[in-house]
Specification:
One of its GO terms (molecular function) is glycosyltransferase activity. With about 325 residues, this protein is of the alpha/beta class. Helix content is about 45%, strand content about 20%. The chain has twelve helices and twelve strands. The longest helix is centred in the C-terminal third of the chain and has 25 residues.
C-alpha cells in the first residue's frame, strides 16, 4: 500500500479474544490471514476455551509466523482477552476482531488508508449482521465518507436507533496504539464495548468514517461462546448505560447527558419486554427494571428543556413501558425527545 508515493509497512496488531468458538474460528482467522495489507501480527487470545479452539489457534500459529497464541486459564470476558492482547501487542496500530466474526480482505488496508490520509487517531467502517440462514442485514448510517469529531460520534450513538451500532462497537475500527497507553477494558463484565468506546472517542477532534461494509457480525444463540445468561446481559447493559450517563455528567456535557439518559430509558423498556416475553423466573429483574424506568422518568421530567409534546411522549412511555419496548425493538420506534 502506497500513500503519497511512500510504501506503508507499519505493523498492525489484530487482537482476537476467543472463547469456545471452534465452529467459527477458522473463518475468522483465515479472513485475517488473507488481508490485502500484509504487515500484521494476529494475536489469538484463547480465553479458557473448553472446546478445540486452542488447538485451532496453535495450528494457525504453525502455518503462519504472523500468528501468535496467548493462553488464559480462566475465561473472564472478552475484555480480559483484549487486555492480554494489548499488553503483548507490538503494532503501531490496533484492531479487534471477535473470534466468531470475520472481515473482508480489504478491512485493514481501507481503514489504515483512511486513518493515515486524514491524519486521525481512529478510522471506522460499517458492518453487516450475518444470520444463521446466510442472510445479512445492513448497518449503514451514512452513505459517504465523513470526518466527525469524537463528540459528534458520541451524540449519534446516543441519539438514533439504527445508527448507533457502528459507533458503539470496538471491532469495526482501527486505532493508533497510543490511545491504549493508559486505557484498558473492564474485565468480568458483558458489554465491554459499551463501557469503552465513547471514552476513547469523546476527547478526539477528528475521526474518519468510511461507509464500506468491511466486517461481519455473526448473530447466533450459542451460549457456549459466553459465560453470561440473558439476565446477566440485561443487568450489565443497564449498568453500562448508567456509567455512560455519569461520564457525560462528569464532563458537564448537558446535551449528551440528556441523550444518554433518554437512550437508557428506551433500553430499559426493551429489556422489560424481553424479560416478560422470553425469560422464566425473572420477576426480580422486571421489578428492578420498572424501578429504573420510574427513576429515569422522574429525572427526565425534572429537566426544563422539554416541550409539552415531548413531556406527553415521556408520560406515554412511563405508562406503557412494555408496549413501547416492543415497538422500539420490532418497529424501530424512536420518539425524538
Amino acid at each position: 500500500m502506497r500513500i503519497n508515493n511512500t510504501e506503508v509497512t507499519s505493523l498492525v496488531s489484530v487482537i482476537v479474544p476467543i472463547y469456545n468458538q471452534e465452529r467459527y474460528l477458522e473463518q475468522c482467522v483465515k479472513s485475517l490471514l488473507h488481508q490485502t495489507y500484509p504487515y500484521l501480527e494476529i494475536i489469538l487470545v484463547n480465553n479458557g476455551s473448553k472446546d478445540r479452539s486452542g488447538a485451532i489457534c496453535k495450528k494457525f500459529a504453525r502455518q503462519d509466523r504472523r500468528v501468535r497464541v496467548l493462553e488464559i486459564k480462566e475465561n473472564l470476558s472478552a475484555g480480559n482477552g483484549r487486555n492480554t492482547g494489548l499488553d503483548a501487542a507490538a503494532g503501531e496500530y490496533i484492531s479487534f476482531v471477535d473470534g466468531d466474526d470475520w472481515v473482508r480482505p480489504e478491512f485493514i488496508e481501507k481503514l489504515l488508508r483512511a486513518l493515515l490520509e486524514n491524519d486521525v487517531p481512529i478510522a471506522q467502517c460499517c458492518y453487516e449482521r450475518a444470520y444463521w440462514n446466510n442472510t445479512f442485514s445492513d448497518t449503514l448510517p451514512y452513505h459517504e465518507f465523513r470526518i466527525f469529531s469524537g463528540r459528534e460520534m458520541c451524540k449519534i450513538m446516543n441519539e438514533f436507533i439504527g445508527m448507533c451500532g457502528p459507533m458503539t462497537m470496538m471491532w469495526n475500527k482501527l486505532y493508533r496504539a497510543e490511545l491504549f497507553k493508559d486505557f484498558r477494558f473492564y474485565e468480568d463484565v458483558a458489554y465491554e464495548d459499551m463501557y469503552s468506546v465513547y471514552k476513547l472517542l469523546y476527547p478526539l477532534e477528528r475521526v474518519a468514517f468510511i461507509p464500506d461494509r468491511l466486517a461481519y457480525w455473526r448473530q447466533h444463540g450459542s451460549s457456549g461462546t459466553s459465560r453470561y445468561s440473558y439476565k446477566d446481559f440485561c443487568i450489565h447493559e443497564m449498568y453500562a448505560y448508567e456509567e455512560r450517563v455519569r461520564f457525560f455528567g462528569m464532563h458537564n456535557d448537558r446535551e449528551l447527558y440528556r441523550l444518554a439518559l433518554k437512550r437508557m430509558y428506551y433500553i430499559a423498556t426493551q429489556h422489560l419486554y424481553l424479560q416478560k416475553r422470553y425469560v422464566k423466573d425473572s420477576r426480580n429483574v422486571q421489578d428492578w427494571l420498572l424501578d429504573k424506568i420510574a427513576d429515569i422518568y422522574r429525572e427526565l421530567m425534572a429537566m426544563d428543556c422539554w416541550s409539552a409534546r415531548t413531556r406527553s411522549r415521556m408520560r406515554f412511555i412511563r405508562r406503557f413501558p412494555e408496549q413501547f419496548g416492543y415497538w422500539s425493538l420490532h418497529h424501530k420506534v424512536d420518539f425524538r425527545i
